[in-house]
Amino acid sequence: MPAYETVIGLEVHTQLMTHSKIFCSCSTKFGAAPNSNTCPVCEGMPGVLPVLNKQVVEFAIRAGLATGCAIANQSIFARKNYFYPDLPKAYQISQYELPIAEHGWIDITVGGVHKRIGLTRIHIEEDAGKLLHEYPGEPAGKFSYVDFNRCGTPLLEIVSEPDMRSPEEAKEYLITLKNILEYLEVSDCNMEEGSLRCDANVSLRPVGAEKFGTKVEIKNMNSFRNVQRALEYEVERQTLMLESGQIIAQETRLWDADRGMTFSMRSKEEAHDYRYFPDPDLLPVNVSDDWIERVKRELPELATAKRQRFVSEYGLPEYDAEVLTASKHLANYFEECVRLFPQAKTVSNWVMGDIMRELNAQNADIRNCPVTPAHLAAMLKLMDAGTISGKIAKTVFDEMYASGKMPDEVVKEKGLVQISDESALEGIIASVIAANPNSVQEYRSGKAKAFGFFVGQVMKATQGKANPQVVNTLLKQKLDAA
């Protein structure tokens, strides 16, 4: 039995999918030239006044309701004061004492065990800018540059309770949270672009103890896999220190993915003195019960409900339903295919097989798949009608994926129509049987494998175009004939 229990809590920042920033009309579009999406408000010029983006509040309510939180009828913005070069006002507008949402939960499943992870709070805040320590055309390490484009970008900070007991649980929590946010369409959760960022607090305590151990914060984790790796490393590091009698320092550590280890960034006191106080330029946010009820009515079907419906409505295995609902866009793709070709399990097999294989190989998203639901459904209809065989369909699919052509066009261009005409196949079968007398004797002496040999020879002779069912029937008739 392990001597220590792991305690993990996560702080997740997710960028909201608004067109403009939280307190001004500047664009939130990613990838713009440095300092081009800025104005006096987000640059913190003296005398400017912030104006709250209502869509930010709506998105926060949506996220809070979807995670079981209580939505506050009144919340306030506070100034979080600290100095850093990427923070032009020298304070960040956030929420402290009265956040927009509190006391929710996220349900996860790890190793077949279901668990509820508590949420302490969800609050709204603005993002800071970005420091660039290298810039094209400039000597590396000589200067640092500041890009204020991200200043004022709206964020939700989602703070969990310290309820996770393993790195695997932390990873599953993040995957589930990302899934919820994407289904709600409040964030694109793109970790590469900084739309979803995670800090982890991890400590160890003796098994059975109630008091938490010394907390270490880990930053700079840019993927779910790296979150798990960083936590695994940190748990091992702290375990070895405790077993050797060393004291864990309360600190912030950075994750180095290349070296697979964390290293100390700065020591951390018991609490930062950010000197929070209510922002005098922003009125309290009043959220009426009617507003909350309207947002609740308009919540979309989330992954858990969709997964259950895929099983009950379409008769899919639970595994299929889980895979297909892992992404809202993938689930929508599947349902559109089924609408066009109402054989859910057949569609599921192709989406989870050939479609996902190609997308994963190219690290692509289903939204960029050249085989649209119309493509896939049309191909499946050709199979269902007997125009092409399952084997030919693989060739058609590959060509569709490569060229974007519709399946009937591919079949016509490449002459892939399945041969089902019995008179045409009888001649080919007769030739194959005549050419292989020894195999005929083997079959008639009870060697079942010989039958598969004949099927293969007929398919080879027809370049895979023969209808397998017709071939099997005719072959059996001919071989069994006296």
UniProtKB/TrEMBL annotation:
State what this protein does.
Allows the formation of correctly charged Asn-tRNA(Asn) or Gln-tRNA(Gln) through the transamidation of misacylated Asp-tRNA(Asn) or Glu-tRNA(Gln) in organisms which lack either or both of asparaginyl-tRNA or glutaminyl-tRNA synthetases. The reaction takes place in the presence of glutamine and ATP through an activated phospho-Asp-tRNA(Asn) or phospho-Glu-tRNA(Gln).
What molecular functions are annotated in GO for this chain?
A: asparaginyl-tRNA synthase (glutamine-hydrolyzing) activity; ATP binding; glutaminyl-tRNA synthase (glutamine-hydrolyzing) activity; transferase activity
Annotated PROSITE patterns = GATB (PS01234)
| Record-level GO BP terms | glutaminyl-tRNAGln biosynthesis via transamidation; translation
Q: Which Pfam families would you find in this protein's record?
A: GatB_N (PF02934), GatB_Yqey (PF02637)
Q: Which PANTHER family match?
A: GLUTAMYL-TRNA GLN AMIDOTRANSFERASE SUBUNIT B MITOCHONDRIAL AND PROKARYOTIC PET112-RELATED, GLUTAMYL-TRNA(GLN) AMIDOTRANSFERASE SUBUNIT B, MITOCHONDRIAL
Describe the family membership recorded for this protein in Swiss-Prot or TrEMBL.
Belongs to the GatB/GatE family. GatB subfamily.
Give the lineage. Answer: Bacteria, Candidatus Moduliflexota, Candidatus Moduliflexia, Candidatus Moduliflexales, Candidatus Moduliflexaceae
Tell me the name of the encoding gene: gatB
Under what name is this protein listed? Aspartyl/glutamyl-tRNA(Asn/Gln) amidotransferase subunit B
Q: What is its EC number?
A: 6.3.5.-
Assembly notes: Heterotrimer of A, B and C subunits.
As its record notes, the protein acts as a catalyst of: L-aspartyl-tRNA(Asn) + L-glutamine + ATP + H2O = L-asparaginyl-tRNA(Asn) + L-glutamate + ADP + phosphate + 2 H(+); L-glutamyl-tRNA(Gln) + L-glutamine + ATP + H2O = L-glutaminyl-tRNA(Gln) + L-glutamate + ADP + phosphate + H(+)
Q: Please tell me whether the keyword Secreted is annotated for this protein.
A: no
SUPFAM superfamilies per UniProt: GatB/YqeY motif (SSF89095), Glutamine synthetase/guanido kinase (SSF55931)
Q: Which residues form the Asn/Gln amidotransferase domain?
A: 332-479
Per UniProt, the keywords (alphabetical) are: ATP-binding, Ligase, Nucleotide-binding, Protein biosynthesis, Transferase
